[in-house]
Design goal:
With about 200 residues, the protein is mostly helical. The longest helix is centred in the middle third of the chain and has 24 residues.
Length: about 200
């Protein structure tokens, strides 16, 4: 008798849903956004495609849910990191450090985000961007209120620069060994400290 794949005995629906989302993240990270299929995700989640469709009606909704899951992972950690200090630059340093830890704790996260950005050019938002942008916007608004932005720097431009820098660092985390990545992160922090904020 052939073993039936689907929800394991004793697993609840939420555990199975998370297993599917983790499998989707891994598949997109490994083969790309457009190349990922429901069949591959189901196989990675150790279930049949038919069972997977009980949770998500199509690939688009599944990948959208994966993006929301990433927001749910990223947002509280970035907010907690930013809350560790009252100093604006220290808060940004903490956000960059937490971003590095997120990439380490979730090995497929950086590759998934890169693939999602490449595969969803029509969308204005992609996973992880909302949480990062909200946290950075709050920090930069505080800097503007305290008068610690560099002369002539507009808050919107600083937010864009920090978000772009953070996304770039997350992509480099997938290709650089730990020591060169740490040096790159340190250089990015010096750049932010020296260029975007007044001493």
């Amino acid at each position: 008798m052939r073993e039936r794949l689907g929800r394991p005995v004793g697993a609840d629906a939420e555990q199975t849903r998370r297993r599917i989302l983790t499998a989707a993240m891994r598949c997109v990270a490994e083969v790309g956004y457009s190349q990922t299929t429901i069949r591959e995700i189901a196989r990675a989640a150790e279930m049949t495609s038919g069972s997977l469709y009980h949770y998500f009606p199509n690939k688009s909704e599944l990948l959208e849910a994966t993006g929301e899951e990433i927001e749910d992972i990223v947002a509280p950690r970035l907010r907690a990191a930013a809350a560790q200090s009252d100093d604006v630059v220290a808060r940004l340093d903490a956000v960059l450090d937490e971003s590095q830890r997120l990439m380490r704790d979730h090995p497929y996260l950086a590759a998934f985000l890169r693939a999602a950005r490449a595969g969803s050019a029509a969308r204005s938002r992609y996973p992880g961007s909302r949480a990062l942008r909200e946290v950075v916007t709050e920090i930069v608004a505080d800097a503007a209120a305290q008068g610690t932005l560099a002369p002539g720097a507009s808050p919107a431009s600083v937010v864009e620069a920090v978000c772009a820098l953070t996304r770039g660092l997350s992509e480099r985390s997938t290709t650089l060994p730990p020591e060169p990545y740490a040096a790159t992160l340190a250089a990015a922090k010096r750049l932010i400290r020296g260029s975007l904020f007044a001493r």
